[in-house]
């Protein structure tokens, strides 16, 4: 199923245009984005930690970060293209 999904997603992709676009990416902004995502995950995990501790759960904070990371990676997101980014 994964191979079929990759085929369906990548079949119309212009790899030359993708590589040209990737060459223009500013790595500093990519690092800022990655740091913002990581901070967001930690803040959300802390919020859940407080809520779950309030109802008597003893789940570790680190485990919550792991679980929220998996949810973040696996949840579908709307596709965006370079044309939609200002």
Topology readout:
Blueprint: H1 2-10, H2 15-23, H3 27-54, H4 61-74
Helix pairs in contact: 3-4
Shape: elongated
* Mean pLDDT across residues: 84
Q: Count of DSSP helices? A: 4
Number of domains: 1
The value of Rg in angstroms is 18 Å
Helix share of residues? 55-70%
Enumerate the spans where pLDDT stays under 50 for 5 or more consecutive residues. none
Give the strand content.
Answer: under 5%
Helix- and strand-based class? mainly alpha
Largest sheet: none
How many beta-strand elements? Answer: 0
N→C terminal distance: 35 Å
Write the H/E string, N to C.
HHHH
Oligomer: single chain
Keywords, please?
single chain, about 90 residues, mainly alpha, 4 helices
Describe the structure.
- The chain has helices spanning 2-10, 15-23, 27-54, 61-74.
- The two termini are 35 Å apart.
- It has one domain (2-75).
- It is an all-alpha fold and 86 residues long.
- Helices cover 70% and strands 0% of the residues.
- The mean pLDDT is 84.
Summarize the structure.
With 86 residues, this protein is mainly α.
